[in-house]
Amino acid sequence: MSSQGLAHESGVTSAQVRKDLSYFGNFGKRGLGYRVARLKKEIRLILGLNRRWRVALIGAGNMGSALFSYKEFHRQGFDFAGVFDVSLDRVGLQWRDLTVRHIDDLEADASRLGMEIGVIAVPARAAQSVADRLVAAGMRGILNFAHRRIQVPATVALRTVNLSIELESLAFEIKALNPRGTRSRRR
Amino acid sequence: MSSQGLAHESGVTSAQVRKDLSYFGNFGKRGLGYRVARLKKEIRLILGLNRRWRVALIGAGNMGSALFSYKEFHRQGFDFAGVFDVSLDRVGLQWRDLTVRHIDDLEADASRLGMEIGVIAVPARAAQSVADRLVAAGMRGILNFAHRRIQVPATVALRTVNLSIELESLAFEIKALNPRGTRSRRR
Fold first, then answer.
1. What ipTM score was computed for the predicted complex, to two decimals?
2. Most B CBs within 10 Å, among A170, A183, A186, to test the B interface
3. Which terminus of chain A has a lower count of CB atoms within 10 Å, N or C?
4. Chain B nearest CA to A177, separation (Å)
5. What does pTM read for this prediction?
């Protein structure tokens, strides 16, 4: 496929496609374009998606439940290998093939089952203590959905998802589309 | 507060703080820094956060439930004014002060209650048809949590949240921290 074709599929310019891919190596041939199968394999290798990752989900509330049901994680190579909570109302619940475990079991389970990524879906006030336990349990990366900045050692990868910023950005884009603030309601 | 102080709080350089803010106007005084209260007000105005927004939530499943419970939306000025679904198991459920409504009621409710933003939390296969209904109901912006690219008129702002990319980026960062792939498990 040509860089024009890739550009069309991904909604960027062909120059951007060529530039971005050239950061990682020499994937295309001038005048011939890219071999899609090889390109896909190379990109998955670069992204660390040429393998499956075992994930510990902390928090079996609304957010945890939504993340557990999010099918795209599994498709991209991420498998929830354990769900943990502190609430005795939730510990012991059956979630598909998993039983919700007490957070005190995290360290032993993570080691036994080879979990390497922790997902934090607990209230903000508990986020740092959960992060500390995930680090102690040997996680290599943490994805934080709690609305609180957390600290981890430099050897652990950390990303924080702020859903609020998505709505804030949308509000900004709405304003940008209609800067005078007049509402042109379509019926 | 000085740009150094703002930089420290936000984790970027002071030059970046000054550069970013200068895009929008002359907020600081050389040698004196920024008046925090005025700066906050100006930024909220720029972002369209100097007002409240009424939001229609489509999908009362796991993801919808998690978003409805996400307290930060309300704190930033976004209020769910209606929850809609197609499932007769869910229509009629009481969610705090709201009753889950049938999607067929969207247009009338949106107009009556002044909803301007739609949040899509339905399965991927239903995302485009829900988007079409949100557009027909006069929404000015749509936040899409379904894993499907959707099309809306250029007059409607659109953002798609891909939670999978967050885990993929984390996997990439883990690889970058430990490129040889050796696992240095801390006990």
1. 0.86
2. A170
3. C
4. 7
5. 0.84
